Amino acid sequence: MDTILSWTDERVTLLRQLWEDGQSASKIAAQLGGVTRNAVIGKVHRLGLSGRVLKPVEDATAARRKPAQEVEIETAIAVVEVEAPEPVAILSHRLAPDFPVPAAKPEPVALAASQRVTIMDLRESMCRWPIGDPTTPEFGFCGARSITGLPYCTHHAQIAYQPAAERKRDRRVAGFR
DNA sequence: CCCTGATTCGC
DNA sequence: GCGAATCAGG
């Protein structure tokens, strides 16, 4: 077993894809698993991937600091107000069309009954991992604090986003930490 | 308080 | 090379 998950070719490749795809460091870290956003950012810099085409908001963040070397980033980017009105409760598919959605249900209702919330109580910031049988009244969602930008909490994100390489040999199941 | 990326620097 | 701590800002 090649324990110690490090920056293998697979992970670096995935990092590159996600980063260039505009994903934030924290989201990438969550999907890779085993690393923090700091680790992701550090790696991005070592790979020379920083300075990607950013969205106005993020670019402003990057430009604020004036490092030892004057990285004069003169950007005359129009600030676009992107206000996405978020309906209260909707199906996870609608909220996160491009995110993998677990086939109906992995966990026994009893196991997470304490946190389960109904669709009516689901909020944007809550984990949408389905719990229970959708055809029954007990059906609900995890409801824990979700990773901003992702539909699941850290626990379920790790189940939903297992890297292909590791999925093969399996390994980590549910939450650690 | 939530989050963003950037940089520093001990390991 | 790695990433926690810290910074600077939204």
How would you characterize the overall build of this protein?
The chain is mostly helical and 177 residues long. The chain has 2 domains: 9-54; 86-177, no CATH class. It contains 8 helices and 2 strands, in the order ααααααββαα. It has helices at 9-20, 25-32, 37-46, 56-64, 92-95, 109-112, 154-160, 164-169, and strands spanning 130-131, 140-141. It has a two-stranded antiparallel ribbon with strand order 1-2. A hairpin with an 8-residue loop joins β1 (130-131) and β2 (140-141). α2 (25-32) packs across α3. The two termini are 21 Å apart. Residues 54-114 and 168-177 have low confidence and may be disordered. The structure holds a DNA duplex (11 and 10 nucleotides). Pfam families: GcrA (PF07750).
Helix and strand pattern:
HHHHHHEEHH
Oligomer: single chain
Low-confidence parts, pLDDT < 50 over ≥5 residues? 54-114, 168-177
Structural class: mainly alpha
Helix content: 25-40%
Cα-atom radius of gyration: 19 Å
Number of helical segments?
Answer: 8
- Beta-strand segment tally: 2
Residue-averaged pLDDT: 65
Strand order of the largest sheet: 1-2
How much of the sequence lies in strands comes to under 5%
Head-to-tail CA distance between termini: 21 Å
Structurally, the number of domains stands at 2
What is the 3D form? elongated
Main beta-sheet annotation: 2 strands, antiparallel
